[in-house]
UniProtKB/TrEMBL annotation, chains A, B:
Stated family: Belongs to the class-V pyridoxal-phosphate-dependent aminotransferase family. SerC subfamily.
First-level EC class: transferase
Keywords, alphabetical: Amino-acid biosynthesis, Aminotransferase, Cytoplasm, Pyridoxal phosphate, Pyridoxine biosynthesis, Serine biosynthesis, Transferase
Entry protein name: phosphoserine transaminase
GO MF entries: alanine-glyoxylate transaminase activity; L-serine-pyruvate transaminase activity; O-phospho-L-serine:2-oxoglutarate aminotransferase activity
Amino acid sequence: MNPTINFTPGPSQLYFTVEDHMRTAFREGIPSLSHRTKKFESIYQSTVEGLRALLGIPAGYHLYFTGSATEIWERIIQNLVEEKSFHLVNGAFSKRFFEVSQQLNRKPVKLEAAQGQGFDAHFKAPAGTELIALTHNETSTGVMLPLDFFRTVRTNHPNALLAVDAVSSLPFPEFDFSLLDSVFFSVQKGFGLPAGLGVWLVNDACVAKAEQLLSKGLSIGSYHTIPSLHTHALKYQTPETPNVLGIYLLGKVVEDMNRKGIHAIRHETEYKAAVLYQALSENAAISPLVKDKAFRSKTVIVADTGEHTERITKMLLEKGMQPGDGYGAAKKTQLRFANFPTHAKETFECLADMLVAYKP
Amino acid sequence: MNPTINFTPGPSQLYFTVEDHMRTAFREGIPSLSHRTKKFESIYQSTVEGLRALLGIPAGYHLYFTGSATEIWERIIQNLVEEKSFHLVNGAFSKRFFEVSQQLNRKPVKLEAAQGQGFDAHFKAPAGTELIALTHNETSTGVMLPLDFFRTVRTNHPNALLAVDAVSSLPFPEFDFSLLDSVFFSVQKGFGLPAGLGVWLVNDACVAKAEQLLSKGLSIGSYHTIPSLHTHALKYQTPETPNVLGIYLLGKVVEDMNRKGIHAIRHETEYKAAVLYQALSENAAISPLVKDKAFRSKTVIVADTGEHTERITKMLLEKGMQPGDGYGAAKKTQLRFANFPTHAKETFECLADMLVAYKP
């Protein structure tokens, strides 16, 4: 394996147990296992049960697998929005979710915030909004919505479905799922797995909404509609031949994380984030992109490195650390650091020391 | 790895080099490689170039990656059919393609054949048919369309797009791509790879048709529309975070297959099929499901085993050979045998000997 420690926010550094699990997978015939076998069903089931335990997912919430989180943006709009979705947009990924709704010929409305900024939780979506699309952690800018944000949105919008993109935050956030209708992520970020699998959580209200659109004669897709995914998921099956190996590996990493304990993972994430933000504030040449502490991401920390970007990158690479580039136009003036469960505390301490010691 | 030889038609036995390639992948950091790197682009490019060489894919044909072949059914209807698709249906998978068109609120028409039967190539699709959906190899029944079938269909339908599901036949068939507009497959069958990746070939006529639908204001999807896939593919990129590891492994197996030579692979496939069909005709208790030799699949051979099914299965399993069950309702009366590049000649000879020696 590459000895460089990878801080890019996705695909990220592998969780440190993945290579061993892959060896076991080959020994057990998983890469060629048919998805129409009892053995596959038991893998699906144990992956789901592991995720329920890890994330505290309640009954009445269902878990489906897709090819990517990008696919889930599309499936959410297809299945849950007849016309009106409302999007909080503050970066490239939340913007893309909004655009998907446009491309599917819905009539989405957006509330925009400037780069590096959050939102006032007391916004009011237009009357008749069917779904509010929230990006918990905007990977491009490192803005994370605080958890009490969702309570305010829920209170002010009792009739809209709330869908939360948690791609680059889970397993860190302790969501109160009773406030949310759908949450989704992909496995190549916080879970440290090879890309090629999306995980979509929906509650009964989502199932009912999709069935309602279908009963109106609207098309909500074909194999990956909520009713199709749901019928199969009840039997721990999938409508199509899925990424069996990906589901197996996710189950194994979730097992490892449950063994470590979600509290320890959350605590370490908080600690590592604090260490890094402290370092960013100690060196005058560097500063956190997100000024408002309430919106600072704990899982993707973005540094405004300005004209020092290239030199800092070089310095880190020489020590075997690969920072993530700033996103898009910010490539030459910002650096992004993923803070995922696979990143050790010692590594973050070392990274922080180097950033503090950097001489402009 | 499981020592049983797996004849299930999908997911099938792994190609025998896959485990080695997986080890190399980990050594080279492929499982966490970002899809926005030059290294990924060069993997994508070499996979495409390898497939072009292996299958004889001409210029003017483009190659996109999806999550599954099931997804490609949906993308074909979304991107290439405003209203009228025409489907040749003779089993569970060709039927599913037809149903996808219904679910997307198009107005598909089908021509049906009984189980185990092919079609008269001189059928005439309704006037105004935009796309004819053909399943080259119906995996559920082992019916394979002969290659000259496509020439007749093309001649009789100069204005329709021809889309060919080659999921369980490639890399075996030597398609004349000038007769076809789109061909697609998934990697867990003939290519012997872990499931979770679909490969979609389209020609310029498909690109034009998708753009035409889009310019009419119709929705053709979001991230996996042909225009979006196409723009990215020109740079060897993908719209979403793809199954990077799957694309890498496909490229490596295709390299192995090119080293062996497609002529040798085709010749061996023909030979193994001949050996097995001969065996099926020699034992009075067993017979090929497909009576018309012109339509007998070379890659998924289905045996009518009637009341002997359970005993034959047991006999084969004792010798370390796992036959595929008959599909759906035929589970207790048929067996299916995949004849893919990973299956050795000697294995097929042994399988044939055992079937001939079976005593009712």
